[in-house]
Amino acid sequence: MHVETDTEEIQVSPNDDCFAIRQAARYVTQLYDRHLGQVGLKTTQFSIMCRLRRRKWMTMKELADSMVQAARDHWFAAQEEFEQRFGPQRAASLREELFDMTKR
Q1: Is 35 in contact with 72 (CB distance < 8 Å)?
Q2: Count: domains in the chain
Q3: Of all residues in the chain, what percent are helix, strand and coil, respectively (each to 5)?
Q4: What DSSP state is assigned to residue 39?
Q5: Domain that residue 25 falls in
Q6: Which of 45, 95, 96, 97 has its CA 20 to 30 A from that of 87?
Q7: Looking at residue 91, which CATH number applies to its domain?
Q8: How far apart are alpha carbons 31 and 86 in whole angstroms?
Q9: What is the pLDDT at residue 68?
Q10: What are the CA-CA distances from residue 78 to residues 4, 46, 57, 65, 74 (Å)?
Q11: HSE-CB of 32 using CA atoms within 13 angstroms
């Protein structure tokens, strides 16, 4: 891939880890958004609702519970599609590696 600017052409190296990760993240986000869109949600909204649901002291718990139950099937459908395309073992290894990277 290359990007043309007014003054020069920028080449993206096939060894560019950051670009590869960002491209994959966009692809996976679009996959999940497509599934969750069937109930009017985006992945970011679903993730927030799941966190709200776990916090017992939140007054929005009932709302989060009802919306997460409706969206959960679509989330799992997206998860299943990703794992079918990428492979269950590879997906598990990828998650482990990415979570390890962000541990403090």
Answers
A1: no
A2: 1
A3: 75, 5, 20
A4: G
A5: 2-102
A6: 45
A7: 1.10.10.10
A8: 13
A9: 74
A10: 35, 12, 30, 20, 6
A11: 18
**Unique residue bearing structure tokens 């939140």:** 58
What's the predicted TM-score (pTM) here? Answer: 0.58
CB 46 within 8 A of CB 68: yes
Burial grade of 62 (CB within 10 A; 0-12, 13-18, 19 or more):
exposed
Two tokens, residue 75:
């989330």
**Tens digit of pLDDT for each residue in 38-79?**
999 999 888 888 877 776 666 666 766 766 787 888 989 999
Instruction: Give the separation between CA 101 and CA 104, rounded to whole angstroms.
Output: 8
- The residue type of 54 is R
